[in-house]
Amino acid sequence: MTSETNVQHGVSCPISPIKKSPHATITSDLIPTTLNEALLLTAFRKAETANVILKEWLIHSQTANILNEMYYAKLQGQLAHQHKKKKGQKEGKVLGDGLPHLLSGDVFYQQVVQHEEAQR
Known about the structure:
The longest helix has 54 residues, at 35-88. By secondary structure, the protein is mainly α. The two termini are 31 Å apart. It is built from three helices and no strands.
């Protein structure tokens, strides 16, 4: 990953606020008269509860996604700055590998000339 890498993030969509269902007050007053009505009412209440839980989970996920995008943007800026700083540094030594070399001949002279040109 570099400072120029473009990462595709999940698309956030607007979420309506969590509010008490208008059906909750109606269903709380209902007294089932048959077994089928009791089963349907129980299933409806479970579905309403599951929807609220899923909506809360979605809100938390989108919040985490937004925070991750902010963190990613900060890191990307730091990485770009680090690359820019690294490009600006000049090479310090002609033979910077730390190994001994025989300093004679045209090869060494060419390396010195190239090093001086790179420092300009």
